[in-house]
Structure formats: C-alpha cells, structure tokens
Amino acid sequence: MPEKTAESTGLMSTLQSLVTGIDQGIENHRYKIRPEEIGTLTYIGEGIVRASGLHDVRSEELVNLPGGVRGMAFNLDPEDTSIILLDWAKGVSAGQEVRRSGEIMSVPVGEGVIGRVVDAVGRPLDGKGSIAFDRRLPLERPAPAIMDRDPVNQPLQTGLRVVDALIPIGRGQRELILGDRQTGKTAIAIDTILNQKRTDVLCIYCAIGQRNAAVAQVVDTLKKNDALKYTAVVVGAGEDPPGLQYVTPYAAMSMAEFFMQRGRDVLVVFDDLTKHARAYRELSLLLRRPPAREAYPGDIFYIHSRLLERSTHLRSEQGGGSVTALPIIETQAQNVSAFIPTNLISITDGQIYLNPTLYQQGIMPAVDVGRSVSRVGGKTQLPAYRAVAGDLRLSYSQFEELEAFARFGTRLDEETRKTLERGRRVRQAFKQPQYSPRSAEEQLYVLVALNAGAFDSLPEDKVQQAVARVQEACAEKLRSMGEKIHSGEKLTDEDKNRIVEIAKEAVGEE
What we know:
Blueprint: H1 6-28, E1 38-44, E2 48-52, E3 61-64, E4 70-76, E5 81-85, E6 97-104, E7 106-109, E8 117-118, E9 135-138, H2 161-166, E10 176-179, H3 185-195, E11 202-208, H4 212-224, E12 231-236, H5 242-260, E13 265-271, H6 273-286, H7 300-308, E14 322-330, H8 339-347, E15 350-354, H9 356-360, E16 373-374, H10 383-406, H11 414-430, H12 440-451, H13 463-477, H14 479-486, H15 493-508
Parallel strand pairs: 8-12, 10-14, 10-15, 11-12, 11-13, 13-14
Antiparallel strand pairs: 1-2, 1-6, 2-5, 3-4, 3-6, 4-5, 7-9, 15-16
Helix pairs in contact: 5-6, 7-8, 10-11, 10-12, 12-13, 12-15, 13-15
C-alpha cells in the first residue's frame, strides 16, 4: 500500500473536523422541548385580573398579557391566580391567554439611572431614550442584618436651620415628615435634596400617586438648581394603575441599595406613603382580602416596615454605605393619631411635624418643634454645631411654653419678657425661603449670634435681613473657620466671641 503523505494526513484531519462540526451543528439545531405554562384570563377588573392554569407561578413573578400588558402575580390561590397590572388593560378580555415570564419582578440599577426619570419597571419617562444599567435587582430584598449595621453618627444636612439645629438627621436614619395638606412637606424634602449639591450624597425622589403636573414641577426645580445630575426620579403617578403605584417605593429602595452596597451614601424621599397605603388598600379590596381598621388590610403595617427597615448605615466591612429615608405622609385636621400616621411614627427614628397654624402665620418651614423629634439626636451633629444647638433647643422649648401662658394676659416679670422677646426673634431667624438651603457654617454663625442675643434689639420684621447680613459678613471674614467646623473641631470661646463681634457689627448696619 502507498505510504501516507503529509498532505493526505492534513486533508483527512480537515475532513474529520468538518464532519465533527456538522454533527455538532445538527445536534444544536435539533428542536428541544421547553415547557411553557399558559393560563386563561377569567376576570378583568380595574387594575387587577384573575387567571386559571398558572399552577407553578411564583409570588411577584412577571406575567405577560395580550397587547404587551404586564402584570405581577400577587394572590396564589388553589383555584386561580390574582395578578396586579403594571399597565392599564386596554384590549384585554376574559378568555385570552396569559403567559409566565419565569422572572421575578425586578428593576434596573446602576449609574445610568442617575439624572433620569423612570417608572418602577425601569421604563424612561423623560424622552431621553433607553437607560444604560448595570444589572437588575428584585423589588423585595431582605433588610441588612443587625450585625451588618453601624450606628448612625454622620450628619445629613438639610440646609434648614430649624431642622439641622433642633431635629438633626443622620445618614442611615428614617425621619418621617408629616403634616396636613399644603403645609410644605415636599418643600422640606426638595430643599434637603438641593443641599446635597455640596456633599457626596446621591438622591432618589420617589413620587407615589402624585399628579403628573406636580412631578414635572419637581423635576423642573431639580433641573434649574443643577440637582438632577446626582438625583434619580422614580414615578408611580396618580394616573398609573394602583399596582404600579404599589411597587414604586420598593423599586426606588432597590436602586438605593445598589449604591449603598458600593459604599455610597444615598437619600431617598418617599412622597408620599399615604397614597401608597391607599393604593394597596384599593388592590386588597379588589382582590377581596379581608379589610381591617379603616378598610386597610391587616398587613398594612408590614408593607411599610419591610420597606423602611432596608434603610440603614452599613459597617465598613460591608462597604460602609448608607440609605437615609425621608418618608412623607399626610394627616387630616392635624390628627397624628390616625391609623397610618401612628404606624409610621412607630417604624421611623423620629418625625418632623408641620403645623398648619404656623404655615398660615407665614412661618416657613412650618416646623412644630414641640411635636417634632429626632431619636438619633445630637450624635449626628458636627461637634461645633452640637455645643451651640443644644442650648438653643432648650431655650426655644421654654419660649414656646411661656408663649402659651402669655396669651392669657397675665403679668410678666422682666426675665420672662426677655425670654419671650428673644424666642420670637429666634423663630424669625428660623424662617427660610424655599430653595435656599444653607451650609453648616452659615447656619452656625447665625445660631451663635442668636444665643449671644445679637438680634434682641431688632424689631421682629428686621430679623430676616439681619440674618442675611450676618451670614455674608461671617462667610467673608471667617473663611478658615468653615474648614475647622467641617473637620470636626469644636469652637473655642475665642471663635465664638469673634463670630458675635462680627454679627453685632453686621446687625448694626442699616
């Protein structure tokens, strides 16, 4: 037999590899059986549907309805599955097919969501095209374990003198903002977001049940103040199905957790959880869940506690990030003992209460100091700030108590009269225009001057102008002191005397 040449050996090897490739291609292109569970719609309601045949569907799994409508499995009953809709069910009717997606409800997260306006599913609402995201996270996630948390001891400055001085908020805290309708609740939250321009805190504004016009106004405010570059806006508008409104705050929290786990500090504003509770009540009644107090379902406390418990300050071994939550709720006729307000007061680490009487008197922000509290307290304040603010809170509380008695027209001694006069000027100094947050050092200059009585000789209507002059004068002449304050150093008596001296000079200017 003729000997095999190198050429024939190479040809045989090539043919062999070609045959192997063809066999693999045939194997890969063979039809494979893939099970797919398809159910049938049995009921169409306002925001919900029911389907039969989805026996293996999981809780919170996305399901696909005809016409591109999406829903989320909610009630898994033996006979049928109740689904809450994430889109309005246009063109959907009983008898049509519904298909499982196999995916648990999730939201896109990553740097790409910052500066964008999205809904809870991740669809862009700002007309800027699709969103570039790192990955998707489920809406519901377990809260960090107790051993993974660190104490809340870093300040989150709101830029509002009355809050930062008397009701301080820390990074990782849950501080409730509550009050009647149109008392400035959202304004406090927006001012806090604007004040983070000078910090490294990312912000997420979560609008639940708001009018589209109101959300557009907030977005426009953030854009005009150059705050949208570090803020994401997540919207479940009042015009959206109640199911989308229900999942919106959980989507916002998942977005915040993504950054927290990477060592970032995040502020999340939930505006507002009263409408969120009403959306959940609507869904529960449509799904025929047993109603309890005020027709809310029995687990209404749990839906908010499992949301807010996810905000915390992580230990350095876990990244050291934090999520600070500012939930907003609306009271009716100043009734803070209603069902939803008492639930949230018991969940959060304090509350800022806005009094409609103060609002009507033109005292804005209309914070009722006597009914507001921060359960973290001065631990989150800068050392220089803490020493000054502690004395001020005590004297201001005494003023409010004395003012209530003074209304009866009783005779007042000289010391009481002086306390009342100074207290009224302190209240005037706490007044602050919207969208004008102040840095910690600017606030501190005014607080030191207030404690020293620098404004006592002024008429009440002149205090606001004097405060502005004091801030400008101290900022110009005490530039090095600002760095000292932020570095955590305490103010010496010499520093305080210098501030008071400059403040009295500024107040004396006409």
